[in-house]
Structures are given as structure tokens and as C-alpha cells.
Amino acid sequence: MHLAQLRLFAFRGHQDLRLELGPGLTVIHGPNGQGKTTLLEGIAVLALTQSPLAGSLADCLAWGAPAMRLSAAVAGRRGPVAVDLRCDRTEAGPVRLRRRYRVDGHPTAARAVLGRLRVVCFWPDDLGLVKGPAGGRRRLLDVAISQSDPGYAEAGVRYRRALEQRNAALRQARDGGPPLAYQAWDGALLDSGASLIAARADFVAALAPLAQAALREVGETGALGLAYRPALAGADARAAPPADRAEARERLADGLLRGGPADRARAQTLVGPHRDEVEMTLDGRPARAFASQGQQRSIVLAVKVAEVRHHREASGEEPVLLLDDVLSELDPERQGALLRILAGEGPALQTLLTVAGEGPHVPSGARHLRMDGGRVRPGTGAAQAPP
Amino acid sequence: MPLLPEPLDRLAAEFARLPGVGPKTAQRFALQVVGWSVDASRGLERALADVRDGVGRCPTCGFIAPTGELCAVCRQSGRDTGLVCVVAGPTDVLAIERSGGYRGLYHVLGGTLSPIDGVGPEALNLDRLEARVRESGVREVIVATDADVEGEATAAYLAERLQPTGVSLTRPAHGLPVGGELAYADERTVAQALTGRLPV
Q1: How far apart are CA A34 and CA A13, in angstroms?
Q2: Least enclosed by CB within 10 Å: which of A3, A16, A115, A367?
Q3: Does B152 sit within 8 Å of A187, measured CB to CB?
Q4: Residue of A nearest to B25 (CA)
Q5: Could you tell me if A33 and A357 are in contact, meaning their C-beta atoms sit under 8 angstroms apart?
Q6: What is the largest CA-CA distance in chain A?
Q7: What is the separation of C-alpha B123 from the centre of its chain, rounded to a whole number of angstroms?
Q8: Is A211 within 8 Å of A306 (Cβ atoms)?
Q9: Please, which pLDDT band fits residue A234 given cuts at 50, 70 and 90?
Q10: Which residues of B touch A182 (CB under 8 A)?
Q11: Does the domain at residues A128-316 carry the CATH identifier 1.20.1050.90?
Q12: SS3 state of residue A148
């Protein structure tokens, strides 16, 4: 699939941005602060129903605006689809939004929007994926799986809700409330948690060989290992992934039961998918400690390329690849490797790449847009002299 | 200088206490009252006072009842007193009664567990339920709280609490809407419906 048209209205700095796009590589040039990243963020919001860069969608509403609107026309295998999100600011007070999604003009729930536009995002912060906190690696799984498994996002919402309630009950028990009332939340936690764990196990198992192959294409010789390590048993975060949902549920139930005393002592749930880890190894050794800075970046590139290929394998359609100012963070060899791999993915893969300033060398055949003062026009802008 | 006279703002603030009424709607309501006849405003005053003085909770089940009296359901003869359906609020009783398919009694909890909002077991009408089950020959308790996270947790807690009494505990089936099309149901509904299938 690819994005054919995009409109961002009152979305951060964009008052009313309209854009026509095609498959293949599009390079978006322009100085900092012109809304290049925001453009990619808007696309990601339509695909993921939340912003990967902001804590709340309310942060994306243009200052003082009463409403914002994001619309896209997606060209896919099953014909064109129009995805539309309108957020109205609710009455006075802090900014809160009422969201309304439409697919082909029909009002729909957020969960029915997921999967209509599939994206793989690569933000500069992702380069810390190997070394950074586990939350970043869990987010990688959540973003990828929620776009291909409609039940996953819903299970995630239920899980977070049950977890919040259980932790609140644990805090109340510590402060003299009913001692065992927190266990009432275990059922909801188990049902949703088991779905998350099973889906994550399947996803990592499918992604691992793709990432391993992609790492070689990036030019590294080491063997990359990706392993899902569900937090199923208290402090033992190195558990092996379960074979299926039933086993996940059983082991999570066991972990919650055994973890009871520790949970009560810390007034916090210590077992479950919110503490999962994705272990990354290079030649069998933990990549976070043993891989060099450059090797870690290669691993991130390989994982992102694998994500693209996984979407293709799972759905038979190309995802849209959003690369935000990533090339400038890479050395010339890795820049070259990434562009070579992208070219090899074929002309159907739509890639939107933002570049600040002069930018690196981009292969011919790419389309160039320049963003300046919130406006978009063709060209790199590099060769144009000021009037 | 405020644009509107002070009594109007005060009335709007009162309306804004109602669920689903924001500041703008409350103001619209208040403006609507301007120019009402004495009869119309007296009618509203009297209705409010009558509800305040004459309507309360049923001492047995917690449903809405005339002050100090049993509710209409508890008073009705021919009800199956061995069957109690536990619900979160009075509107749930109304929904089940509208269905016309239930002949047992009710027990209204007055909410669902929600530690985030500070609602623990002690805030719900649970002691009375336990006493009812122990003392008045209840053989089955149907736990009809919502299927959301809070409703499920409340049901789980209730089951734990009532288990020692030996009463039979059930939960309404979740499944496909009557007359609905399978293709339009969401995944969880379809999964639940298949788990809870019945012989043809």
C-alpha cells in the first residue's frame, strides 16, 4: 500500500497542509522547524491512532485551534481507502479531545482504523533501541503487532486498565485497605495479558530470522539473535517464550500467584507483559554490552528492515516506511547500505525520508520535496539562490 | 462586568452537576428557564422536593424505592426469591426488567470496584448481599456487572466473597447480538460466543 494523499489541518505547526504522494522514495528537504517531522508524525497518528512522539494527541492540536483534522487516501491492493480523524476540543479547561474516526466516510471505532494504513517508523531516538530501556523494545512490538492483529491493541487497553487498577488496589492494601482485593483484577489481567504475550512471542519468532538476514545486508558479519523474554516469573525476567496462549495464561497465572508477596511489599505488579524484554545478542553475547556503537546502529537498521519485510510477508502488502532524519545520524557506509537495501525492496515500497540541510547523497529516481514556512513544493531547494 | 445576571449563573452551575451536562449545555438549560411561568417553575421545584423527600433506596436490594419502603420488585408477588441478580446500578435493573425475561430479585451494588477512583469493596453494597445470601434462602446469584475490566474484577471479587456460602454463582453469557451478523462482530465477542456455544 502507499499513501496517495494527505491532509493535515491544525496539526501542530501545519495549518492546512495538503500533499500528493506516490510509491518509491520521496525525500523531504528543509531547514529545521519547518514541520518535516510533524508531517511524518501526522501519518503515524492516522496509522496507529496515537502519536508515537507525543504522550497525548491533545499535544498535537495547533495552539488555540478548536479542532484538528487528519485525512489520508491510501492506495492498497484492495482499492483505495480514505482514513480520516477529526479531533474536537471539548469544552473549557485543559485541552481534551473528542476523536472521531471515519473510514471511507463511515464513522468507526479507533480499533477498526488500525491496519488500514500500515507504517514502519524510524525516528532518530530509535537508534538507542539496543542500549536504551526495555520500554522502547516493547513499543517496537506494540506498534508492529497492533497494525496486523486487530485484537492486540484492544487487549493492550484492557491490560493497562487492569494493571492500573490492580496497582491502585495494592497501594490501598499497603495503606491499610482490604488486603486481598487486588486479586480481583487478576482475571482481567490474565485474559488480556496472555493475548499480548502469545502475540509477542509469535511476532519475535517471525522477526528474528528476517533481522538476522538484514544485518548481513547492512554489512555486519556477526550473528544477530532476537529473543522474546516474557516477564512471567517475578525477578526471573529471562523466561523462555510460551508455545501458545494457553501456556502463556497458565504461566502468567502462576507468576502472579507466586509474585503476590513481592507485589504486596512493593505495592506494584512485578510480573506481566508490561515488564517484558526483547533480548538482542550479537554472536551470542548481549548486544547492549558487547556490540560497538556502530554495530548497535546496524542492528537497529536490520530490525527496521525486518519490520518492513515482516509486514509484507504477513499482509502481502507493502507498509509505508517513515524515516525521520535518520541518515544524518549514520556514517557514510551505513547510509549507503540503508539506501541500497531500500532500493532493493522494489519500487512499490513507499519511503518518506526527511533530510535537514544539504543532506546526504540520495540515489537518482527519488522524488524531492522542499518544506519551507509550512508549504511544500517540488525540489531540493539546495541549488536555489535567495532572491 | 459579567454579561448575565448572577442567578442565571447559579442555576447553570446546578445543572452542570448532572451527568453528561457540560458548562455550555448547563447554560443553555438555564437560559431556557428565563421567562417560565410561576406554574412551570413551581412544578420543577415540587418535583425536586418530592424526589428528595419521597424517594430513596430499597433496604433489601438497594434499588430505587419510596423512602423507607421496599422497591416495586421486592414487593411484587410471584417473584423467584431464590434467584438474585447483582447489578452495578439502577439503570441495569431497568434494562433487565424491560427485557421481560427475568423473574428473580435484584441486588444493586451502587458501582463497581475501581481503586483508581478510590472505590473499594467497602464502598459497595456487599455486606447486605452476603447477609441476604446467608439468611434468606438464595440458591443462585447471577453476577450481571458489565464485561469491562471493572465489571469483571467486581464479579471476581464477589465470587470470592460468596464462595464460602455455597451459593451457586453464574454470569450472563456474552455472545453474538440477536439478529446480528457474524461478520460484523468484533473478535472478542466472536471468541466468547464460540466458547459459550449451546446445542442446536
Answers
A1: 8
A2: A16
A3: yes
A4: A91
A5: no
A6: 74
A7: 15
A8: yes
A9: low
A10: 115
A11: yes
A12: helix
pLDDT at A235: 57
- CA distance linking residue A112 with residue A270, whole number of Å: 32
**For residue B128, what is its C-alpha cell?**
447486605
pTM above 0.80, yes or no: yes
Q: How far is A92 from chain B (nearest CA, A)?
A: 8
Beta bridge partners of A79: A76
- Domain made up of B64-199: CATH architecture: 3-Layer(aba) Sandwich (3.40)
Query: Do the Cβ atoms of A151 and B187 come within 8 Å?
Result: yes
Q: How far is CA A380 from CA A40, A74, A245, A362, B11, in A?
A: 18, 25, 51, 11, 61
Range from A31-35, A90-94, A186-190 that averages highest in pLDDT: A186-190
Q: Is B114 on the interface with A (CB under 8 A)?
A: yes
Pairing of strands A277-282, A224-229: antiparallel
To the nearest whole number, what is the mean pLDDT of chain A?
Answer: 90
Put simply, the answer to whether B188 touches A150 (Cβ < 8 Å) is: no
Best CA proximity match to A185, nearest among B71, B120, B31? B120
Q: Which residues of chain B have pLDDT under 50?
A: none
Fold of B6-55: Helicase, Ruva Protein; domain 3 (1.10.8)
Q: What is the pLDDT of residues A342-368, one digit of tens each?
A: 989 988 999 999 988 665 667 777 899
Domain extents for chain B?
A: 6-55, 64-199
ipTM for the complex?
0.77
Cell triple for A53: 512522539
pLDDT of residue A386: 41
Nearest CB partner across the interface for A150, out of B116, B120, B187: B187
Mean pLDDT over residues A174-185, rounded?
Answer: 86
Q: How many CB pairs under 8 A join A and B?
A: 64
The CATH superfamily of A1-118+320-387 is P-loop containing nucleotide triphosphate hydrolases (3.40.50.300)
